[in-house]
Write a structure and sequence with these properties.
Length: about 220
């Protein structure tokens, strides 16, 4: 039996999610290109194709949008670390899985990753407190894989190895991908497959390992 009210409810829910997603994607694209301070609510609404009042309704303002972007990135990171944690892999396979999963995330959500990593306004206490809470949540999952696969024994070591590894993984998305139109390079799946291989090799064996293995490909 057809339930009109249930149908309308599902349709409205889909529209709400679609509108929220459009706002997040538009905001991430604009902030990634212009910086957090260089993007206004009106521009985000225009890019998303929605009424400006919807931003206040869904997010409360630009800070709310940024927090949602950070949460999206955090959930993706959480899922990746959990996946690595739950598998009984060798050192090499664990690192390979992590690198591949993170590069896949960069491909799927390039702007979300850029904003979450590079465009956090540290002068806003609300944002910093939120970032701290997300990091504390992730550390519970990250700690064991970091010890098992990278030998990170304490927070000081994590503050060295973590940013170093993440910087390598996302280096292409942060520095090369934004200029791909000017460089005339096609950043397709074949490119990112090779990219993952190089980053994994570099992570495991360093520059010497990369040099010794480059001619094998």
């Amino acid at each position: 039996m057809f339930d009109k009210n249930l149908f309308l409810c599902k349709k409205n829910k889909k529209n709400i999610l679609s509108a929220k997603q459009r706002i997040l994607e538009a905001a991430a694209e604009l902030i990634a290109a212009n910086g957090y301070g260089g993007v206004g609510i009106r521009k985000i609404a225009e890019q998303a194709g929605i009424n400006i009042s919807m931003i206040s309704y869904y997010f409360g303002g630009k800070i709310g949008i940024l927090k949602s972007i950070m949460e999206d990135y955090n959930k993706e990171m959480f899922a990746i670390f959990l996946k690595v944690k739950e598998k009984n892999l060798s050192f090499e396979d664990g690192v390979k899985l992590f690198v591949n999963q993170m590069i896949s995330l960069g491909q799927r959500k390039e702007n979300i990753c850029k904003v979450a990593m590079m465009e956090i306004p540290y002068e806003i206490p609300e944002i910093m407190e939120y970032k701290k809470s997300l990091m504390n949540e992730n550390m519970k999952v990250m700690e064991e894989p970091m010890k098992r696969y990278l030998g990170v024994k304490n927070m000081k070591e994590h503050l060295i190895i973590g940013p170093l590894l993440m910087g390598m993984i996302f280096s292409n998305f942060l520095f090369v991908a934004p200029s791909k139109e000017y460089l005339g390079i096609t950043l397709d799946d074949k490119f990112y497959k090779r990219y993952a291989e190089v980053i994994t090799n570099f992570t495991l064996y360093g520059l010497t390992g990369y040099k010794n293995n480059i001619n094998k490909k």
